[in-house]
Amino acid sequence: MAKYLLLKHYRGAPASVNDVPMDQWAPEEVTAHIRYMEDFAARLEATGEFVDKQALSPQGAFVRSDGEGRPPVTDGPFAETKDLIAGWMVIDVESYERALELAAELSAAPGAGGRPVQEWLEVRPFLTMAPAATG
Amino acid sequence: MNEALLRGLVPAVIGVLVRRGADFASAEDAVQEALIRALEHWPDDPPRDPKGWLVAAAWRKFLDAARAESSRRGRELAVQDEPPAGPVPGTDDSLWLYFLCAHPSLPPGSAVALTLRAVGGLTTRQIATAYLVPEATMAQRISRAKRRIAGQPLDRPGDLPTVLRVLYLVFNEGYSGDVDLEAEAIRLTRQLAAATGEPEVAGLLALMLLHHSRRASRRGPDGRLVPLAEQDRSRWDTRLIAEGVTILQAALARDRLGEYQAQAAVAALHADAPSTAETDWVQIVEWYDELLGLTGSPVVRLNRAVAVGEADGPQAGLAELSEVDPALPRYTAVRAYLLERAGDLEQAADLYAEASRAATSVPERDHLTREAARVRQSLPR
């Protein structure tokens, strides 16, 4: 098994096929989209491939140390051009192909007009913490 | 014996160990270990005297730990091996525990965790699951909290407002994992109300019962948030409402108003109304005036603006809102709501969308996105 991170972006990813901001959908389309996401996660739990999911607020800032004894320096809110992560799902699957298949399924969540959003998701393999014992 | 009854014994058992000479931190650890054993063994082999069993098991755990510690340090064991003769006091050991676990020197998150374990009798694992952190993290949070309050005198009353704040925080955490924190907060507040007789404790209990009564209608079948105005009021729990109102009336009659009683009064007026339109908003505004006088809280000012909007119309509400700090959470959502009612749909839709981006929870974000979509759809194209 191998773990993959599926990353969803508020912005910064290439434009999706059905590219309409969510607050311009019909309310029932918003509901259908949320339902699809929940059903997807439930299905992965049932197949034993779900690990974790989290949603992130678009709020936040960059922060760095300004040296000992000084308060942290922040740079925020984020610029309009910044790549902004909306949330993630971690899956544990048999193969890279399976990870792609699941990401594509998630990307096909219904959007404006009931048509699939077909948004771009980032798929990133985890580095494991230990080398294979038989390696 | 069910788990809630077992958990109800925990404060008394900690009390027994402390009176036998154990320090609070070790006593609490020992009782937690005994509790975990009880949860494992009692379903198959329930004891005849549950409290006696727990005291005996916890005392053994405590002695084992104390012996290991004293031999490690090469010191004499300071407590008696044999417990003193005489009756084990049965009643209220819980009161001093509330004050100790919600000690003002503790950060709120630690006070919540310690209260749930020592007063609520929850296991570290249950608390960790409820707050979505690893068990080891929660265990550390609790033991750091215990180190911080070590040496505090156990025999004098502490800071009641801090205790109430902690219980309120537990209640607001709602339901996650296998522990119903709303119900747990009610159980602990009920116990505290019985032990103190303070009107504000009764006020908090009434507030919790009145909010809890709406639980079945607060979420739709798909988990979505249903605002008060749209809730199916026939699903409100009338038994909880009646109990909350009775407790509140008795508290108010004692003429020592506080913020929880005033909040409960607002909740009671909602509980009493068949619909939003038939709600006594004028009286609700008056209660918010009382609350503002008691707390001066900007959040109260924000809620008051909503009530004024219902009582005197959206323009009056917007005028009140202009006195409120726009940086407050929910300010934008409230402004969107009032503007929608005033007929400025375009700006309302924009503000709902803006509010959804500032939401702090997924259900709230989804709700506000849907509101934006709903208002936007009603715009002439």
TrEMBL record, chain A:
InterPro entries: Dimeric_a/b-barrel (IPR011008), YCII (IPR005545)
Domain YCII-related: 28-110
Protein family membership: Belongs to the YciI family.
Protein's UniProt name: YCII-related domain-containing protein
Native species: Actinomadura violacea
TrEMBL record, chain B:
Comp. bias intervals (Basic and acidic residues): 363-374
Transmembrane stretches, start-end: none
Signal peptide region: none
Region (Disordered): 356-381
Residues annotated as domain RNA polymerase sigma factor 70 region 4 type: 98-149
The keyword Transcription belongs to this UniProt entry's keyword annotation: yes
Protein's organism: Actinomadura violacea
Similarity comment: family membership: Belongs to the sigma-70 factor family. ECF subfamily.
Keywords: Sigma factor, Transcription, Transcription regulation
Pfam families according to UniProt: DUF6596, Sigma70_r2, Sigma70_r4_2
Keyword ATP-binding annotated: no
Domain RNA polymerase sigma-70 region span(s) in chain numbering: 8-70
Entries under PANTHER family matching the protein: BLL6612 PROTEIN, BLL6612 PROTEIN-RELATED
Domain DUF6596: 160-251
Protein name: RNA polymerase subunit sigma-24
Stretches assigned to coiled coil: none
